[in-house]
Amino acid sequence: MAALFGFHMPNYTFPGVPDDRLFDHVIHQAKAAEAAGFDLVTVMDHLYQIRGIGPETEPMLEAYTTLAAIATQTSRVKLGTLVTGVTYRNPALLVKEVTTLDVISKGRAILGIGAAWNEDEHRGYGFEFPPIGRRMDRLEEAVTIAKLMFTEERPSFDGKFYSIDRALNVPRPIQPGGPKILIGGGGEQRTLRILARHGDIGHWFGGNLEDLKRKKQVFEKHCEDVKRDPSEVLLTVGMFLVLVENEKDARKIVDSLPPERRAMVAVANVQQAAELLGQYMDAGFGGFTFNNNIYPTAEAIARVGELIKLVNGSRVAA
Q1: Lower Cβ count inside 10 Å, N or C end of the chain?
Q2: Domains delineated in the chain
Q3: 305 — phi, psi (to 5°)?
Q4: What is the reported pTM?
């Protein structure tokens, strides 16, 4: 089976590019990703830049406005956030926004959502930042509402934190059953159980493959508990992988990353990277995301396109 490849855009800092040309650069990257064979383009749903990418004072665009504009300039890639924090929006309004994106994109939206973590931007914007247990409760209620509004004409729901009363969601999503729900995060007690019960796609950060295999076993146990076939959920991994042709290029890219990310990065040529991703796929992981702070140019994005062809071509041939 072919793997899903996602191009994630957490970075809007482009040296020498003024604000009035910033979005042109975003479109340039999104189109390059589509041309390279990526299946999905995602943006962060943050208000400040996050640690690990850059200082919080760096530019950050609002997610759904950005995705709607990208939708008008692309034709094939799926579009979504990686991921929306449940605390930032009333979930029914979020469903309306994602449904609108599905209509604008002619059926290419996904709903990426998680429990939120960045307390600084909550404080800065005056959003409540409850303890993690309450955020997880809200996440479960939010995805329940999303499924209802994607699939039913006038659903109602009365939860502890959120409610809807015969909610209208018109126009309806273009995709039958509504956009897929991607749940970000690997918390083993709550997040993975919510993924097992409600999610279509799970996204975890890359890391030691053995650790990810163990986490997958925890997820499968949750699936057993809720009577869900785990094969119904696509497990994806954010890869800190630098594709290079030579050592000089590798050092330049790695040196450009924040110090806390450098130790997480693996450097490989296309053939080596294909072999590495093959190990993940053999372990049951079916999707991979690559970040625009590591692949900022059309040439760098095209190099990942070579990897996509090699990985999926070899899988089809096999």
Answers
A1: C
A2: 4-317 (3.20.20.30)
A3: -60, -35
A4: 0.93
